[in-house]
Each structure stands twice: as structure tokens, then as C-alpha cells.
Design brief:
348 residues, mainly alpha, disordered C terminus
Length: 348
């Protein structure tokens, strides 16, 4: 009863926002609207009243506009939270700041001017904690990471700095940043009261499991990394895929062997998969179904907030693929493939 009273307003906001989500069938129908302009596609997905028809109207890229839309929803929801739940969701949103951090590191390594790097960044509004101006003013990545160690991103910076000093590889630093982010998400989850973790720990655990499995397949069989390095880059948390199992799976030599060694709910959907790319689509869709189940539930809890944000991001990714595909003149089925709709219910 306490959770119901505590989160009644939040639950109402989530339910109202969820009404704007398009089903896969709804996204599929947008693809066939050949005469629909970009602005019309955005409006159809509930993004009316602020998103211009052409990114040049604001100077923002399409991706920046869509992320800004997601962050606007996030700001509304997080205002209804306090204490540890608020900190958890603010940490969840810092994944977009980490994209900014990666863009700055990438730009520094490529020698890009600060103004060019800044144009690629997403505005985090009142919840931005990354010292962008200070980082853009650094001479190189080493100085950037040293400066970052004295910020809320200190743990991430220290891990990335060690990798940079060892290898100076952007891929390895990106992987270290992502790994530390998800480990921190699990730590923030554990700081919540047990009642607030109801269903939320299941959803976060499922997200981490699917991310770990996706990374394991990609690192071992797409990038050819050795077992020890693959295992080291995985997230030290999860639900069904625990450390001993991940270590064992990292030593296997084929994708088929990895899939055969998985527990449910992963082995059956992945049966017959032979590439990391195909596995990615299946793993993502499974995660979205998990979020949809939680969002449709009548429970009043924090898990519905995260489920909504996950599904809103999914929709925005699909819209980006539709708009870019149409601008490039791609055939409808190629666009469906890019959005994952072919995996959902076959060619339209």
C-alpha cells in the first residue's frame, strides 16, 4: 500500500506517456506512408509540437533531436522522485552523458577542433554533470581522463585511463566505460529499498544479462578477442548469467557452443543462430518484450518507469531508422530490417 500511495502520481504519468508508444505494427505502417514527411512521422509517434521537420531548423542532428525528446520525458518523470530512486534514474540517464564523453575522447584522438566536437553532443539540461567545457579544453585524452577523475565519473575515468595507458585503443576505452556504467547501475539498484526493487531488479538483471551475452558473442566471434579479454570486458553483475557461467562461455570456440550452454530464457530463442548480428536482434527483442510485460502490468512500482524509458528509446531508434532509410531511398523491407521489424513478424 505504501508504494501505491508513494508512486500513484508517477504511475499515472507513465500510463499517460505509454499511450504514445507505437506498436511494431504501427511503426511498420509508417514505413509504407511514402508521402509522409519527417515531421509527420515524428508527430505520429507522439513527438508533435517541438520537433522540426528538418534537423537544420535547430542545428541538431536527427539523433540529437530524438534523444532530447527522450530526455524531456525523463525530466518529467524524475521530478516525481526523491532520494535513492531519484539517484538511480539520474544515473540511468548518464548513459547519454557517457555517449558525450566517448564523442569527446574520439574527437581528441582524431585531433578535431572543440567546436566540431561540441556540435555532436547531446544537451543533458539540468541533469548534466559532465564538465564539457573543461574537457573540451584539455590537450589530449590522458589529461581529459585525469580531469574526469575528480568528478562523479571518477570510477569510469580511472578504469578508462588505465586501459588508455596500456593500449591507447578507443575500442578498449569505450568497452571499459560501458562496463563500468552497467556495474554502477547494478550498484545504484542495490541502494534502493527492497520494496522499490520489486520487479526493477528483474528488469535491470535481464538488461545486464542480454548486454553481457551480446558483448560476449560480439567480442569473441566478431572481433576475435581471446577468452580472458572477453570475460574481463563483461559486466560483473546480472541475473541468470553469473560470473562462473560467463567465464565458461567465454572459453567456447563457436557461437553454437555458447548458445547450447545457455539457460532459459536465452537458449531457445537463439537456437539455430550462427552470427552475432542475428543474435543481437533476438536479444534486443526479448528485452523489449520483458519491458512491455512490466509496463502493461497493473503494479505501481519503479519498474514501470524504467520499462517505459526502455520502450520509448526503442521507438525513437526505430523512427531514426525509418527516417534515415526514407531519406536514402531504401526499399521498405531494408528499412524493416534496420528497425528489427523483419525479426518481429516477417516482411510486410
Amino acid at each position: 500500500m505504501r508504494a501505491i500511495a508513494r508512486y500513484a502520481y508517477l504511475n499515472a504519468r507513465v500510463s499517460g506517456m505509454a499511450a504514445r508508444l507505437l506498436s511494431d505494427r504501427g511503426v511498420d505502417e509508417l514505413i509504407d506512408k511514402a508521402d509522409e514527411q519527417d515531421g509527420g512521422l515524428l508527430q505520429a509517434a507522439g513527438l508533435a509540437g517541438g520537433e522540426p521537420e528538418h534537423p537544420a531548423d535547430t542545428g541538431l542532428s536527427l539523433e540529437q533531436q530524438l534523444i532530447a525528446s527522450l530526455l524531456a520525458d525523463f525530466v518529467i518523470l524524475v521530478r516525481a522522485l526523491s532520494a535513492a530512486p531519484r539517484r538511480f534514474f539520474i544515473y540511468w540517464a548518464c548513459r547519454f552523458e557517457l555517449s558525450n564523453l566517448k564523442a569527446i575522447m574520439r574527437g581528441k584522438m582524431a585531433g578535431e577542433p572543440a567546436a566540431q566536437i561540441r556540435a555532436q553532443l547531446v544537451d543533458m539540461g539540468p541533469y548534466g554533470r559532465l564538465p564539457v567545457d573543461e574537457l573540451l579544453g584539455t590537450q589530449d585524452v590522458a589529461e581529459l581522463l585525469r580531469r574526469l577523475e575528480h568528478t562523479p565519473f571518477g570510477a569510469i575515468a580511472r578504469e578508462a585511463r588505465r586501459i588508455y595507458e596500456e593500449r591507447r585503443e578507443l575500442f578498449a576505452m569505450d568497452a571499459a566505460v560501458d562496463r563500468r556504467y552497467y556495474a554502477g547501475l547494478s550498484e545504484h539498484l542495490q541502494s534502493l529499498e527492497r520494496g522499490d526493487r520489486r520487479q526493477l531488479d528483474t528488469l535491470v538483471g535481464d538488461i545486464i544479462d542480454r548486454t553481457n551475452l551480446l558483448w560476449l558473442l560480439r567480442y569473441r566471434f566478431s572481433y576475435g578477442l581471446p577468452p580472458a579479454q572477453t570475460y574481463y570486458l563483461l559486466i560483473p553483475a546480472g541475473d541468470r548469467l553469473r560470473a562462473p557461467l560467463l567465464q565458461r562461455l567465454s572459453r567456447l570456440e563457436t557461437i553454437e557452443e555458447v548458445i547450447a550452454g545457455l539457460p532459459q530464457p536465452f537458449s531457445r530463442p537463439l537456437s539455430g543462430v550462427t552470427t552475432a548480428a542475428d543474435a543481437t536482434l533476438i536479444l534486443e527483442r526479448g528485452g523489449w518484450r520483458k519491458a512491455e510485460t512490466i509496463l502493461r502490468s497493473r503494479s505501481v512500482n519503479l519498474a514501470r518507469v524504467l520499462a517505459y524509458l526502455v520502450l520509448r528509446e526503442k521507438l525513437l531508434r526505430q523512427l531514426r531508422a525509418v527516417i534515415k532509410g526514407r531519406r536514402l531511398g531504401l526499399a521498405p523491407d531494408l528499412i524493416r530490417g534496420a528497425t528489427g521489424l523483419i525479426a518481429a513478424f516477417g516482411p510486410g
